[in-house]
Amino acid sequence: MNHILEFRHVDYSYHSMEGEVHAIENMNFTVEEKEFLVIVGPSGCGKSTLLDLIFGLIRPGSGEIIGAKDSIGYMLQQDHLFDWRTIEKNVYIGLEISHRLTPENKEYANDLLKKYGLYDFRHKKPQELSGGMRQRAALIRTLVTRPKLLLLDEPFSALDYQTRLNVADDIGSIIRSEEKSAILVTHDLSEAISMGDRILILSPRPGTIVRTIQMSFDSSLSSIARRQTDEFKQYFSELWKEMNQLA
Predict the structure, then answer these.
(1) Which of 19, 110, 134, 180 is 20 to 30 A from 12, comparing alpha carbons?
(2) Which residue, 39, 41, 44, 35, is CA-closest to 16?
(3) By the 8 A CB rule, do 86 and 134 touch?
């Protein structure tokens, strides 16, 4: 497999009112093409900091981050759709900013809206859609710029539990259908197992990788279907044990 991203001995520190905070220490990992990687760990261990480093919002104090920098999409905890723009116009935002709102890319955006059930709602405003549909629109807005790697920073945390299950299943299926690499940060262990191919477990700050869990579900299973399997129970028990040891 080909690496789409590689961390080599990455350290990162920042300054606070209490002085220097060592957030990330000797971080080493890769992300492969079409892989769905999940990062979990105690609060404050540096999970979101890792995404900021990958996206280039901050620079490592030492070490190297190789690959994907010019082709990354970022989904945050809120969908950040503009209420005064239609869904179609919201989907175009990334293309407008990058000066790529061409007829070809407009057609691609419409194809994605059709493929994922939002074409008939393209002239609606965000407040007229459900939370799940808004998140789907936010993902299409990201996909239309054709990123190689998607970063997801707890994108379902603002949703109620039932909606969260359905949207996670929906988003996971779309990412796999589009054959994108993705990195998800989450506190939800069930979500991590049901969506990911591999899980990195980080230590308390300074965050470093203490364990990697490689999963081997049937590739045809959806996120929700994974939750019904014996393998899911085994992975959950393993991950729960590791997280308790870090608490």
Answers:
(1) 180
(2) 44
(3) no
Query: What is the DSSP pairing of strand 3-16 with strand 19-32?
Result: antiparallel
Report the distance separating Cα 242 and Cα 247, nearest Å. 9
Residues in Cβ contact with 143 at an 8 Å cutoff, skipping those fewer than 6 apart: 73, 112, 174, 178, 180
User: What does the pLDDT look like over 170-185, one tens digit per residue?
Assistant: 999 999 999 999 999 9
Which residues are CB-contacts of 11 (< 8 A; sequence separation ≥ 6)? 22, 24, 25, 26, 27, 60, 61, 62, 63, 206
Please give the model's pTM, rounded to 2 decimal places: 0.93
With a pLDDT cut of 90, the percent of the chain lying above it is: 82
The two beta strands, 62-66 and 36-40, are: unpaired
CB-based contact 36:177 (threshold 8 Å): no
pLDDT in tens, 116-159: 999 999 999 999 999 889 989 999 999 999 999 999 999 888 78
Q: Which two tokens stand for residue 13?
A: 């520190």
The DSSP bridge partners found for residue 14 are: 21
* pLDDT of res. 155: 86
Describe the strand order of the beta sheet including 149-153 as a list of residue ranges. 72-75, 149-153, 181-185, 36-40, 198-202, 209-214
Taking alpha carbons only, the member of 224, 226, 223 closest to residue 235 is 226
Q: Which two tokens stand for residue 14?
A: 């920042």
Cis before residue 206, ω within 30 degrees of 0?
yes
